[in-house]
Amino acid sequence: MPSLRKWLFSGLLVLVPLIITLWVLEWVVSTLDQTLRILPTSWQPDQFLGIHIPGLGVLFALVVVLSIGALASNIIGNKLVTWWHALLHRIPVVRSIYSGVKQVSDTLFSEKGNAFRKALLVQWPHDGMWTIAFLTGSPAGEVLGHLQGTPGAGEHDEFLSVYVPTTPNPTGGYFVMLRKSACIELSMSVDEALTYIVSMGVIVPGGPKNPHIQVAADGAITTSSS
To answer: Along the 226 residues of the chain, how does pLDDT read in single tens digits?
Structure first.
């Protein structure tokens, strides 16, 4: 029985990541393949080829994104984008949704943005308890004024906007503002920090790739690498 259980878990460790990876890839490819439907029926590859080739939608979506990016990078395209933004900001309801999404996308994808560029070590949710967080920016305006007026803070104190993700799903988390002096900047990359969070501390950046955790009868915890 111990051998069977060991083989079972070893098989799951091999198959589960592979199955999940293939499932995600299949979902991405099938979703992007739907973009071909915006083409006229006579232009769709399934019609004139007579067969469905998975992945053509990915290539088509990539060409569309690159084309829009190239168009938006020149003077005429930039004016069109500015006009389009101004139009959407005049439409009620749409204006509120679009503005919020635009600010988030500018922060995440802009080359000048600093979101998720640095991994930090912060005390959360209270002193003495540490976790991994990500720098998203710096507070300003009225918020910064109130922060600098809090007890123990001065008008020259620096604060950081920080995202504290949950584990094992980092898409949920908390947005907090902390003193810069209370944050420790880590040398690990954002990808390494995300892996550390998703694995719940099992995969340590720069550490052993397959640590074994052993719990003794007295409750003592030891780790070893393979």
So the answer is: 777 888 888 888 888 888 988 888 888 888 888 877 777 777 777 777 777 777 788 888 888 888 888 877 787 777 888 888 888 888 888 888 887 777 767 666 665 555 677 899 999 988 889 999 999 888 888 888 888 888 777 777 889 999 999 888 887 889 999 999 899 999 998 888 988 898 888 888 876 555 555 545 444 445 555 5
CB-hemisphere CA count at 13 Å for 155?
0
- What is the SS3 assignment for the chain? CHHHHHHHHHHHHHHHHHHHHHHHHHHHHHHHHHHHHHCCHHHCHHHHHCCCCCCHHHHHHHHHHHHHHHHHHCHHHHHHHHHHHHHHCCCCCHHHHHHHHHHHHHHHHCCCCCCCCCEEEEECCCCCCEEEEEEEECCCHHHHHHHHCCCCCCCCCCEEEEEEECCCCCCCEEEEEEEHHHCEECCCCHHHHHHHHHCCCCCCCCCCCCEEEEECCCCCEEEEEC
pTM more than 0.85: no
